[in-house]
Structure prediction request, 195 residues.
Amino acid sequence: MASTTKTTSKTKSKAKADSVAKRTKRRPAGGAGLTAEQNAESGFRASRTLSENLQKVLVDLIELSLQGKQAHWNVVGRNFRDTHKQLDEVIAAARTFSDTVAERMRALHALPDGRSDTVAETTTLPEFPAGEVSTSDVVDLVTERIEGAVSTCRDVHDAVDEEDPTSADILHAIIESLEQFAWMVSAENRVPAAG
Prediction:
């Protein structure tokens, strides 16, 4: 009887473990999808192209906020406090912008995909280095990533504007703000021009 109880217990444990593994198994990135109209919904709907273009912006903004946090936690060296605080501003902006883009997508019946696997698989931003990073290196690395997010916004802008000028206006605001951040962050490592 004890042997049967142990076997049943092991079988139940294995079945439970298999069930958890099945539910938590990572799936390939799917990207943004589209929803069908329901009830009284009848407004403007994003095309697949518009949805995919906004998705590209979304993942780069999410990645920018995550890499900003990585830098924030691990920056060391001269001007630490100012760099640490300035990174918080970049992170907050990237989070706000990603939320704005995702909510715009939902308003247009598109399904934003901000899952970690999707972001990691589809971002255009290069990986941030592990471990402690000097303030001067962080300034250059973060500037590069901000400019990468801006580049994505600019790359999709014309196609977005052609289909939906309202979404393009959101991209304008993001570009303006991120370009200002790139200037302010990069100024930490600049030297005055001779002249």
The beta strands are 33-34, 75-76, 110-111, 133-134. DSSP finds six helices and four strands in the chain. Residues 135-163 form the longest helix (29 residues).
